[in-house]
Specification:
alpha/beta; AAA_dom; P-loop_NTPase; DNA_Partitioning_ATPase
């Protein structure tokens, strides 16, 4: 496995994670992985979420209902390559399964229970078979989530401007990041405001979310350029003179329609004006940091 160096373009694994459902984890994971593949990189997308949204949205319901791939890979030690399915030329998927709760249960009594994903998948595949590995995680704390964090050691948190976003990031920071950092290095790569649609010159959830992450010292360095707002930007917004592109990943019908068509956004609508956001996320994963 290649040695990771933050600030340099290196093979990396990353978990897309937030302890709250409906915040765009699967959408972010799918389109991040696809943009990494578009940049001529070989990518593996792993669906560790028992709801299987990533697997379903990429058109593999049959795999979700077939053999329990993750049981065979994480518990039985089978070769993960025997269980991946191809999405595009450079993008493969290790699918979720309807009985993923059984894997969670079996991990509790397994030796080195939080290291199975690293030992059986990430370590043998990252840098040799795949340049990047993206893991879509469960929205709840457990052994699968622990495995994702330990194996990747890099984290992207998607945030939707709806009730509970602040508690979602607070709980993720308290129950996942801070606790994990007691045992191993865990890097927060990016906070991703997604599905934004409201005005910023009024007291809206979009404004509150963007203001909070851009104004807090511990969060601002992890805000991608497509969501960054400076103090002068806020002045322009309030004065009605803001002329830059609206920040964050904006709500677009094609993003939802791509899921229903079982495609990535790029493969469904290659002209969508939000693809540049996922492309920047891919660059952040490549270099291990937000680059200003």
């Amino acid at each position: 496995m290649a040695t990771e160096t933050v600030g340099e373009k290196e093979p990396r694994a990353v978990a897309v994670n937030v302890l709250k459902g409906g915040f765009g984890k699967s959408t972010t994971a799918i389109n991040l992985a696809r943009e990494l593949a578009e940049r001529n990189e070989r990518v593996l997308l792993i669906d560790l979420d028992d709801n299987g949204h990533t697997t379903f949205n990429l058109g593999h319901q049959d795999q979700y209902e077939a053999e329990n791939h993750l049981q065979q890979v994480l518990i039985d030690g089978e070769d993960p390559i025997d269980h991946v399915v191809s999405i595009t030329d450079n993008l493969d998927l290790l699918p979720s399964h309807e009985s993923l709760e059984d894997v969670e249960t079996n991990l509790k009594s397994a030796m080195a229970s939080s290291q199975r994903l690293h030992r059986n998948v990430i370590d043998p595949l990252l840098g040799d078979t795949y340049s990047y590995i993206v893991v879509d995680t469960p929205a709840n704390r457990g052994k699968l989530n622990d495995n994702a964090l330990f194996a990747t050691k890099n984290l992207i948190i998607p945030l939707r401007p709806e009730s509970g976003w602040e508690s979602g990031i607070t709980q993720t920071n308290k129950r996942l990041i801070k606790e994990a950092q007691q045992y191993f290095d865990l890097q927060l790569l990016a906070l991703v405001p997604t599905d934004l649609s409201e005005r910023l010159d009024q007291d809206t959830r979009d404004r509150n979310l963007l203001y909070a992450i851009n104004s807090r010292d511990g969060l601002a360095p992890c805000v991608p350029n497509f969501a960054r707002l400076t103090s002068s930007d806020w002045e322009d917004i309030d004065n009605g003179t803001y002329s830059k592109e609206l920040p964050g990943i904006r709500h677009r019908a094609s993003i939802d329609k791509a899921h229903r068509a079982h495609k990535t956004l790029r493969d469904y609508d290659p002209e969508c004006d939000q693809l540049h956001c996922y492309d920047e996320l891919a660059q952040i994963v490549e270099y291990g940091e937000v680059r200003r």
